[in-house]
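Narrative summary of target 7.
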Amino acid sequence: MADTGIEAPPAGGASHFGESAWVQLVEFSRLLVAEGDVRGLIGPRELERLWSRHILNCTAVVRDLPEKCDIADIGSGAGFPGIIVAILRPRAEVSLIETMERRAQWLVEVAETLHLTNVRVLNDRAENVVSSGQKFDSVTARAVAPLKKLVPWTLPLLRGGGELLALKGARAEQEIDAARGVLKKFKATNFFVEDVAVWGTNEATRVLHVVRQ
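Modeled conformation, tokenized:
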């Protein structure tokens, strides 16, 4: 990771995350550096903040995920946050839902390379997964859609009491206000924004929580 313009991993990762998980996170970063731009997964300028803005940013949702549960990640793309979740929750079953075939293939390759046996990749739309009757304890999402659109795609995937954890930005509260009608329609019982301090960065990450009745 000594290349100019590529953000290096912070020191102390093995102590914080555990040796096995840290090795997988570092290897994932190497895969993104080698192929992310070529395969249209992450822009070259994003490599300057690969760890702070992307990999570590995604860890903000993990603390609210049980050690052992069924998780769906919507619009997994390059693997944010789904691959990070799978690495840090090895006892959980993680389904990566991605509509684009080339991105779904990337996710399959990453899971195989990192030996993530708790991952399955669904090259499908969230609506079709809903129609299949599959249910999950938690759903994660990052940079997929405003909450008003995200709720109909995600809350029907949740079991009663399940939670959507969406990584959001400065306008998270405005998204809640715009989505109040659809939140009520899809039986959201609790929704709020939390600013989470993330290890290894100087910036807090915003996590939008939505709990289904």
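DSSP finds nine helices and seven strands in the chain.
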